[in-house]
Amino acid sequence: MSVSLLRVQLLSPMAQQLFGASSRRGLADVPTTLSALPQSVRNYVKEKANLCQPDDIYLCDGSEEENKRFLEIMRRAGIAKPLRKMDNCWLVRTDPADVARVESKTVISTADKRQTVPIPKEGVKGQLGNWMSPSDLQAALQDRFPGCMAGRAMYIIPFSMGPVGGPISKLGIQLTDSPYVVASMRIMTRMGRSALDAIQGDNYVKCLHSVGLPLKDISKPLVQNWPCNPSKILISHIPDRNEIASFGSGYGGNSLLGKKCFALRLGSILGKREGWLAEHMLILGITDPRGNKKYVAAAFPSACGKTNLAMLQPTLPGYKVECVGDDIAWMKFDADGVLRAINPEAGFFGVAPGTCSHTNPNAMRTIQSNTIFTNVGETGDGGVYWEGLEKEVDTSVGVTSWRGEMWTPHSRNQAAHPNSRFCAPASQCPSMDPDWESPEGVPISAVIFGGRRPAGVPLVFEANSWQHGVFIGASMRSEATAAAEHKG
User: Fold this and answer.
1) Which of 17, 291, 431, 469 makes a 20 to 30 Å CA pair with 357?
2) Is the pLDDT of residue 213 over 50?
3) Strand-pair partners of 447
4) Which cofactors does this protein require (predicted)?
5) Largest alpha-carbon pair distance within the chain?
6) Which residues are catalytic?
7) What's the pTM value of the predicted model, to 2 decimals?
């Protein structure tokens, strides 16, 4: 396909019925040709379109009308189904080979290995990330991406991490061939025209993603209609070019490139350059009975309770807890020396199992509408089910497991995958802090470090000083969880 004359086109035959000429009214204010894009974005799209060879290119605007069409595309393709018991909620089941982050195939590429990871003793495998040389990475990408979108559409997603235009916020452009990614990025980021208009020059992170399965290469039915290429998965980060390239996986942690890839891995490097911190932390505000309010950040690994703590409903009389964010914090000292933090995300990508009205009533209220559920069980009356909802959901109506099999409480396998997720707008959480979208961020008064340690250490203890706290935080360990490929 020649991109020199390429227009930002519609999708393939099925989707053209949904995005046809009569429906373009909802997209009228979005640039409809590559020439209307900022020059640097135009160059990036042309380069990757020539590499990936999509049949069509479509620029996303993030509108509700557009979102409905993407959900309908997924419904017709058998990727997603509406949950009739809930309000605009959808269920997605993935290939069982694509259910978690793949840390062993996640790399950072720099000229000097020491820029990325400490170099351990010969024969010892390091535990603090994976490095790949630029030449090896280039060969790996060249082995994967050429022609990978043949028969598919390339979707252009302009997005902002943090409020658009904020002093700590960052912009990104993600190119993907996955409608699931588009629908999820609309929830997790500030996506659309406002983000595109804020791009000036190269002030954005370039994100390329493909499920890694050209239509012509599909020789047998997909497992649960989920396109992926597990044997070729690679999630790469190129700090010198502010680029991310992810191949082969559609799972959120590997494909929603604004999340772990941008907000944490590349964010840590951007922060080091620019004087701020990107941390795997929740942010919450606590108000005591006298009306004094303090904001706290807390660092736990995935699936260790950040979301539950961020949405805590206190039982102590007179106390109130409000959520700023449940997963990632970008922090920077302001002109007065106050450490301020923003939640760069706009949604929750939470672990479903264990979430219930007892452990997290605010999360349960949040996910009743406009939510995408991935790899949870489905009840016969069109609701959702996972381990932890035994006392709240009537399973006698029948339950279909995340693998698409009939399930009962006596089944040997679980109804939901241990890393099954809900993707819901943060604005729906009843305990969101009034300043959760403050561009300047909220002032941080304390930092909590935690993890999954069922034995050997006290449940809670306090550092003697800030210096002691840094030592404790840097030396903590935690059990592996189902959020990565080596568990669950």
Assistant:
1) 291
2) yes
3) 297
4) Mn(2+)
5) 66
6) 304
7) 0.91
